[in-house]
Amino acid sequence: MDIKVVKGNPTEDEIAALTMVLADLQAAAAATRTPGERNLWGTPNAPGHSAPIFNPGAFSNVTYF
């Protein structure tokens, strides 16, 4: 992990402490990252559903104001 100090003059101990804190936060975030349950509801090729049919005349008698 590379840390660049842009302002101030930290000591080696302060940089080491900051590096440890950031490494711990990164490890904790990586440990809690799990793939969520996939919700395939509404997908066009969902099991049990037929393929969508294109019907240009389906709403031909609808009047728009």
From TrEMBL:
Molecular function GO labels: acetyl-CoA carboxylase activity; propionyl-CoA carboxylase activity
The entry's protein name is Acyl-CoA carboxylase subunit epsilon
* Organism of derivation: Corynebacterium qintianiae
The UniProt entry, under Pfam families, shows:
ACC_epsilon
